[in-house]
Amino acid sequence: MDYDDNGKRGYAAVETQVVASLKRRRREELRFRALGIAAVAASLSLVAILFVSIMSKGIPAFWQATFEMEVYFDPEVVQVGPRPVREPSETPAQFQDRMTAWQTELGFVDFNQLILDALAKALPETADRPRDALRLVTSGERFALRDLLADDPSLVGRTARVKLLADANVDVWLKGNIDRSLPDDRQQLPAKTREWADKLHEMGVIKNRFSTSLFTNTDSRSSLASAGLAGAFMGSLMMMIIVILLAVPIGVASAIYLEEFAPQNRWTDLIEVNINNLAAVPSIVFGLLGAAVFIIWFKLPLSAPIVGGLVLTLMTLPTVIIATRATLKAIPPSIREAALGVGASKVQAITDHVLPLALPGILTATIIGVAQALGETAPLLLIGMSAFVASVPSTPFDQSTALPVQIYLWQANELRNFFEGRTSAAIIVLLALMLTLNALAIWLRKRFETRW
């Protein structure tokens, strides 16, 4: 360092030091900015990879191999009497007995023969090997024909154009999700069935159609191609309704009391600390709590949406309370003071002035909490909602499953080639619901937001 004759540091030396310091600071800022951009880019890349992976596998699963063919309801095969009509002198019980007998008679009809006849009409060579031919159509479609005939008995003796789902293995084969060069002993379908599937596809009898059954059917293990999300969707819907009905009023009321009315003492601090701790508790712990309290003590049914809803309510409550308190704290004290100054009581100041201004934040927190609960799987597994349920629940006390649990079950299915895509499709449905809820939260916040 340069010093003049009086021992003071020279101007040039100070300038050099300052310039070097500025260069070093700029380098640090550029390095920090580059690291930030790299972190954001890495995060976006991972999200993009996730979405591309799910979309590329899931979107094709919304389309499924489907037969479109003419089915003749041969009277020699469908040997059932006319649909019962209630007579004036008949009691409801007597009519129901006759209807049950007719439905039972309908259930004994060999609908597989109708399918074989329709296949033989489209491709005559299938008539020689009926067992291999039946493997083209998923087994549950014979019940679809039964239901069709039950709705319209006049079809007997007539021909109707119907759409029947192809077997899951045929769908996999036609989509190319299995290696066609594998030897016969490693293929799921016999060689003749594979050959017929290709021919029928070329003839236009089998088409790749949008699968509405994915949304209207329940899960199935005997007819894999017919498996759908209807039961899981209804179970999740019931649970979310229970969460909204319980978590929102209880959580908001608790937050208002703690923030606006509760005295500041040791007990209040203890409650606040415990609420914050509950928000960080792993969700599986709430599942254990729900199993012990609601199923063992209160004897509520296993695998029921009511139990799932109560467990998710416990899990969502801390989020709603914390977010609501933060929103209330953000309201300027001058609004409360102004209301009190013009003669309003404290309750009136809160309900008429503070709460309307806090409403956007409360709604946002609630919807995000519900969206988070919608995607939870661990607590639902512990209360038995991983059980196979092949029906749509009609009440919250019926056995059911939920969307994330259904995804978990499908992911573990042994027919990986078929259910890998279907699992991704179910994830897309779940993500769509969650993104819809988040979009609704953003819209509500912007719609009711007040700036001061």
TrEMBL record:
InterPro entries: DUF3333, MetI-like, MetI-like_sf, Phosphate_PstA. It comes from the Bacteria. Residues 233-441 form the ABC transmembrane type-1 domain. Keywords: Cell membrane, Membrane, Transmembrane, Transmembrane helix, Transport. The keyword S-adenosyl-L-methionine does not apply. It is a multi-pass membrane protein. It is found in: Cell inner membrane; Cell membrane. Its main location: membrane. The chain crosses the membrane at residues 32-55, 229-258, 278-300, 306-328, 354-375, 425-444. Belongs to the binding-protein-dependent transport system permease family. CysTW subfamily. This is Phosphate transport system permease protein PstA. It comes from Thauera sinica.
